[in-house]
Design a protein that fits this description.
Strand order of the largest sheet: 3-2-1-4-5
Number of helices: 2
Oligomer: single chain
Strand content: 35-45%
Number of strands: 5
Length: about 80
């Protein structure tokens, strides 16, 4: 199963990449598909690419649902 997961941008490396975090795990992802992402924004990531920005309230609600289902910890290993 492939998931697109909400993660928060912790650091921008350059115009094309960023460090994101989910459940304490950090990964480098491409921002090539998202023009205006900034540190602190939530983005949806699938296979190492940020696909779009996400409203913070929606991101938190999705992450809470994933944690309740026991998926957030497993999703942190997926990038």
């Amino acid at each position: 199963m492939c998931l697109a997961i909400p993660v928060r941008i912790m650091e921008k490396k350059d115009d094309e990449t960023a460090i994101v975090e989910l459940s304490g795990v950090r990964h480098q992802v491409s921002l090539a598909l998202v023009d205006d992402a900034a540190v602190g924004d939530y983005v949806i990531v699938h296979v190492g690419y940020a696909l779009s920005k996400l409203d913070p309230a929606e991101a938190e609600a999705t992450l809470a649902t994933m944690r309740a289902a026991g998926l957030a910890e497993n999703a942190a290993a997926v990038h």
